[in-house]
Amino acid sequence: MKQLLFVLPILFLLFGCKGSGISPSVDRSDSLIVIDAGHGGHDTGATSGGRYEKELVLQIAQRTANKFKEMGYRVYLTRADDTFIKLSGRTKIADRVDAKVFISIHANAIANKSRFEVVEGVETYFLQKTRDAKSQRIAKRENEAVLQGADALSKDVIIDSVLNGPKIIESNKLAIDVQGNIVAQLKGAYPDVKNGGVRPAPFYVLVGASRPSILVEVGYITNSKERARLFTSDYQERIVKGIVAGATRYIDNRKKELGF
Ligand SMILES: [Zn+2]
Questions:
Q1: How would you class 189 by CB atoms within 10 Å of its CB: exposed for 0-12, middle for 13-18, buried for 19 or more?
Q2: Which tops the pLDDT comparison, 203 or 250?
């Protein structure tokens, strides 16, 4: 009997929280999540098929914020409407409100029209210099709002100053948990979804982050099939569930490890 009493709680721990591993009944108010909808205002982000990245990512960011709140988290949205916020200000907000994690939401695009219907999929990025041409290209497009003005040397100095921080490893872990959960959610109804994986890239919106920070490219709005899906509530809800389940898994694991 004694043994059974010992085994039961372990069985519950192993199997009691099956599925996403998250339960709304847990008090998570000690964790504040910053959700950053990319672009806004005069900065439309990528545009294709009459759709704007800034609108898509605001819809997903608001849904994500609501889901985190349902789960008991505190949430801060860097923008709740169509306004422009400087890239450099976005991670500063995360510091000011002492966020546990910073999650920036974007949609992807390519320039080569002949490849519009070939290139698709969801990708999650964390800040790191890379020689990978694809990551550099995507970062360059997303960085455009800040590239005007600053010279290449000062940009390199900014990135170098954060590259050796411990947050890179933590951001990588957070990215793995979020990407895995988004893909699992989407594949439940859209088995052909392409998993673009976790990738390092020099995104300026992540520069200066003193906490685990990631950037999710939820899909390519230049791909007509993916664009149509991205603007449906079912697809958005699956992305949202994936982000929330992934971040929760990350936070819960850190709590066990280091009282995060
Ligand atoms: Zn973007």
A1: exposed
A2: 250
> 245 C-alpha to center of ligand 1: Å?
23
What is the CA(45)–ligand 1 centre distance, in A? 5
Report the separation in Å between the CA atom of 258 and the middle of ligand 1, taken as the mean of its atom positions: 33
Q: Kindly give the distance from the C-alpha atom of residue 52 to the centroid of ligand 1, in angstroms, as a whole number.
A: 10
Distance 108 CA to ligand 1 centre (A): 7
Checking if the pLDDT of 86 tops 50, the result is yes
DSSP bridge partners of 126? 200
Residue 38 CA, ligand 1 centroid: distance in Å: 5
Model-level pTM?
A: 0.84
Amino acid at 39: H
